[in-house]
Design a protein that fits this description.
about 400 residues; alpha+beta; Aminopeptidase; Alpha-Beta Plaits; 2 domains; 6-stranded mixed β-sheet; 9 helices; 19 strands; about 25% strand
């Protein structure tokens, strides 16, 4: 059994449904302490939702640092009766490792740790600094996890220069897709206000559903932007609607709509808020909106980190990776606010959050080796920069 597989199984055997970490943080720290990492456990959040974060850093001579980032928490299992095997008992079947967190993202965490161990064994005094930023609150509200650590690092002027987030980004084989950016997420709860009344006397009421319909049609057909070379166009989608008392003879007094923008770098949260509000005002609606900014878009354009990751993937797997910014949000959105180069790379994501989540055992060692080769390449670049500066 490889060290990567062994550590993956150990982490998977620790139930760590958000926000609990199940002992994963301490296990990872036990591997980092002997390597010379300065480990800082940062507990955040209320007593009813306590989050465990870890910032571990081993400085290099160049002053530049690569951070491995990820989450030890997992989503709930769902009905245990539907699992073929216990979700927190790592189980092998037909070359696959089954259990909650297998691909999201305990395999990545194990691969990062083992890659670091092997790199430091071969290069005991690297020019490149290495860090780990881990949290037990990524699958939940994400209010006291990575975002809090990033705030702390920014206040200390200790932000990393490069970051690899271990989210499961691949499609069929490890390395066939990486994320070099993510769209932003802006949600709103729109309340259109009318006048409740008897359905037989519409002239005495004001139906907010009827009044809102033309505005909704316009919002649904609006082209918010054209996207760009790295992002698809911004989208606006309704997720929930509610109106009425449940009775069939009452005109509702309010119409509530939950919606979400997934927006690219061609738009801003403020510009989208203004354009949506202008459309509602044009249709003379009386309304209130509660806004929630889930995350800003980020983009790491092809450059040193992207290039080195692509080179490492080809070297290890022979695959020409695809750059992508599709999918949901990740903690990369917080890290990108303090770190100039952020990418996401992990195993295939086909079974994340599903019953019988699993990862192919054959994907583990290539993932570890890709991480290791990126460490080697970045360290060589740091050495070259040091020499050029002399």
């Amino acid at each position: 059994m490889s060290n990567t597989l062994r550590l993956t199984e150990q982490l998977m055997a620790m139930p760590s449904v958000t926000p609990t970490d199940g002992g994963c943080t301490a296990l990872i720290q036990s591997h980092l302490d002997p390597l010379g990492f300065k480990c800082e456990v940062i507990d955040c959040g209320p007593d009813t939702f306590r989050v465990k974060n870890l910032w571990a850093k081993r400085a290099g001579s160049s002053g530049q640092t690569l951070a491995f980032a990820g989450h030890v928490d997992v989503v709930p299992t769902g009905p245990l009766s539907k699992w073929t095997s216990d979700p927190f008992t790592p189980t092998h079947r037909e070359g696959k490792l089954y259990g909650r967190g297998a691909c999201d993202m305990k395999a990545s965490l194990a691969a990062m740790v083992v890659a670091t161990q092997e790199f430091l064994k071969e290069t005991p005094q690297p020019a490149l600094g290495i860090a780990f930023l881990l949290t037990s609150d990524e699958e939940g509200p994400a209010l006291d996890g990575t975002v809090r650590v990033c705030e702390l690092l920014k206040s200390r002027n200790d932000a990393p220069d490069f970051c690899i987030v271990g989210e499961p980004t691949s499609v069929k084989k490890t390395g066939d897709m990486i994320k070099n950016g993510r769209r932003g997420s802006l949600s709103g709860k729109l309340k259109v206000i009318g006048i409740q009344g008897h359905i037989a006397y519409p002239q005495l009421a004001d139906n907010p559903v009827h009044k809102a319909a033309p505005a909704i049609a316009e919002l649904a057909s609006t082209i918010w932007d054209q996207g760009n070379d790295f992002f698809p166009p911004t989208t606006w989608q309704i997720s929930n609607v509610h109106a009425g008392t449940g009775a069939t003879n009452v005109i509702p007094g309010e119409f509530v709509i939950d919606f979400n923008f997934r927006f690219c770098t061609e738009s801003t949260a403020d510009s989208l808020k203004q354009r949506l509000t202008d459309i509602l005002n044009k249709h003379q609606l009386k309304f209130d909106i509660d806004w929630t900014l889930g995350g800003l878009p980020f983009l790491t354009t092809p450059g040193s980190l992207v290039d080195m990751v692509q080179e490492a993937i080809v070297q290890v797997t022979g695959i020409e990776t695809e750059l992508s910014t599709t999918g949901g949000t990740s903690d990369g959105r917080f890290i990108a606010q303090i770190c100039p180069q952020v990418i996401e790379l992990g195993p295939p994501n086909a079974t994340i959050h599903k019953i019988d989540e699993h990862v192919a055992v054959a994907d583990l060692e290539p993932l570890k080796e890709i991480y290791k080769q990126v460490l080697i390449k970045l360290n060589q670049a740091c050495l070259a920069n040091n020499s050029a500066a002399r």
